[in-house]
Amino acid sequence: MLEALEIKILNGLNSIGGNFVRVEDGDRVLIFDQGIRFDLMSQYYSGFITPKSVAELRELGVLPKPEWYGEGASIYVSHMHLDHMGALSNIPSEARVHLPSLSVYDDIEERWRDSPTWLSLVPRKYYVELEELKPLESDKNSVMAIPVSHSAYPAYSFLYFGKDETVLYTGDFRVDSFLSKDEFHKLNMGENLLDFLAENKDIRVDTLIIEGTNIGSTRLPLTPDEALNVVRRLAENHKQVIATTHALDLEYSYALMKLAAEFDRNFYVATTQTAKILEKVLELPLKPKLIEDYVGYLSSLEKIALEEIEEESFILVSYREVVDFLKDLSSVNKLADSVAIISEPEPQVEEASEYDIIANWLSRIGIQAYRIRASGHYYPYQLKTILNTIKPRKRIEVIHTEKSSFFHRITDKILSSATKAR
User: Fold this and answer.
1) Residues 133/159, Cβ–Cβ less than 8 Å
2) Alpha-carbon distance 416 to 107, whole Å?
3) Fewest 10 Å CB contacts: which of 50, 106, 159, 236?
């Protein structure tokens, strides 16, 4: 007699990041995400105290324990933020890792291997095989990758069709996207999670494992459209818009390109990783130009020098390089009627956020800056819509949150109201 499906959430139950979900179904073992615990990492490391080895990170609980993998030869990564993908070098034995995009991963791995920091510990070992996820196709392990909107591209949730139970692991996702439905479909080769489940009502989810990043947060629940309206208002009053972005946040970059087209302005990119991702997109709202001082690789896109930047423009730069970029721009007298929009990165711990220092430099250079954050995660008020669409039949597990008890109080009220309404 086959044993019942068992779900073991070995990490991420009471922390934001570090997800590690092990699903055992008969002789099949699957792992969903194997992230880094940045909350623990920040307790032991700083700018001058850095990790020495994978073994050290394991011992501190920053990386998953080797025994958690067991017979798990199939590992599914929802997106390539390190609090989910983790260090592939930590995988202790032969395994197949299913990644959202091999080409995007290759670009990132190349940067990590050359890094003088602890990131050089992240790349995979020779015995780890990589395979690219195919959206909306059930694979040989009966796992379907369903596209989701998030601040990393591409990003997926996972639907596992078990022998006697169906499990949905959401990964990180938001309800509202920076993209229209058609744009999302083109970039991700399929519709998003909630639209897919709404259209395929015959799919019944028994167990839902859902992220809860924003549960209990007091941040204003700013949607992508609302964030873009703020940027639009600033662009109406400033000739030059300088915006920071996370390297993997294609949706935000794409939306800013649409705004540049709307204002009939040039769009410049001063960050290599974002340039490489944009270059993979077949249809963009306009053709970006790369600033050669900051994008050094050989590219099919047009390159220009700092001195050639036009006054009326949008400029995209990485959060880490924004101060150096503005210093350089100022040195060649190319800072026009400028405004800086600092997009708060997700996860913030990966970017070593130092907003006060950046603000001090921008004031010294003479640029007004605004911080903006349209979260890559759903907001608590959207839980009712999410649960009414997914309709979990047996149980709900929350992960990637520090407020799990609060989450269950919220969902209990939603489910109780739904029951009374029937």
Assistant:
1) no
2) 47
3) 236
- Classify residue 345 by its DSSP letter: P
Contact 28, 7 (CB under 8 A): no
ω into residue 347 within 30 of 0, thus cis? yes
Cβ atoms of 393 and 205 closer than 8 Å: yes
Query: What six digits make up the tokens of 360?
Result: 């001090």
Quick count: other Cβ atoms within 10 Å of Cβ 180?
A: 11
Residue 257's H or E segment, with its range, is: helix 250-262
Strands 166-169, 289-291: pairing is: unpaired
Q: Where are the alpha helices (DSSP H) in 288-393?
A: 322-331, 355-365, 383-390
pLDDT tens digits, 159-216: 999 999 999 999 999 999 999 999 999 999 999 999 999 999 999 999 999 999 999 9
- The answer to whether the bond into 380 is cis (omega within 30° of 0) is no
CA atoms within 13 Å, Cβ hemisphere of 390: 30
- How many other CB atoms are there within 10 angstroms of residue 251's CB atom? 26
> Taking the alpha carbons of 287, 293, 298, 304 in that order, is the dihedral positive or negative?
positive
Report the candidate in 420, 4, 419 with the shortest Cα–Cα distance to residue 207.
4
Task: Name which of 197, 163, 219 is nearest 372 in CA terms.
Answer: 219
Please list, in sequence order, all residues whose beta carbon lies within 8 angstroms of the beta carbon of residue 28, skipping any fewer than 6 positions away.
141
Q: Per residue in 27-45, is it b (16+ CB within 10 Å) or e — as a string?
A: ebbbbbbbbbbbbbbeeeb
| Pairwise CA distance, residues 400 & 214, whole Å | 9
Query: For the chain, what percent of residues have pLDDT higher than 70?
Result: 96
Q: Three-state SS string across 294-308, please?
A: CCCCCCCCCEECHHH
Query: 0.90 cut: is pTM over it?
Result: yes
Given a contact cutoff of 8 angstroms between Cβ atoms, the answer to whether 133 and 124 are in contact is: no
Angle between helix 272-279 and 250-262 (nearest 10): 80
Residue 403: CB atoms within 10 Å:
19
